[in-house]
Amino acid sequence: MAAPAVKVHGWAMSPFVARALLCLEEAGVEYEFVPMSREAGDHRQPDFLARNPFGQVPVLEDGDLTIFESRAVARHVLRKHKPELLGSGSPESAAKVDVWLEVEAHQHQTPAGTIVMQCILTPFLGCERDQTAIDENAAKLTKLFDVYEARSSDITCKKKLEVG
Predict the structure, then answer these.
(1) What are 8-18's pLDDT values in tens digits?
(2) Whose CA is closest to 24, among 10, 43, 38?
(3) pLDDT in tens, 103-125
(4) What residues form DSSP beta bridges with 33?
(5) Cα separation, 60 vs 6, whole angstroms
(6) d(CA 95, CA 89)
């Protein structure tokens, strides 16, 4: 059997690699995961830097195309294999998806990442977690989730009215 044309380079513990893998799984794409070692500095080796000059994961190889940055990888995979998830029907529906992708990038990522860092990584490294940082970022996420809930409820009500 031939190897999958899609390869993802990275380390399994990375949330950025997880974002890329999640989209590949959702789209049902066969891929090969190429494990790397952060501790060994695989991301600083010349062959990897040729794929991503910033030395970050993930890197996706899709045939002759090589791309990096997890959100760019996710959009590529979904545009190619599941375009309906990105609002491919019209510029307006695509714009609505883009708004919420930006919300995730700018409103969700930082507080969620801080909480993960404080609750999982900090203790793992033998340091004491900062409860104030956790509480402040949990409050930010609570406000964000309230917006999500209000928006999704509004969409659900509109759909029910359309149906009937």
Answers:
(1) 999 988 999 99
(2) 10
(3) 999 999 999 999 999 999 899 89
(4) 8
(5) 7
(6) 11
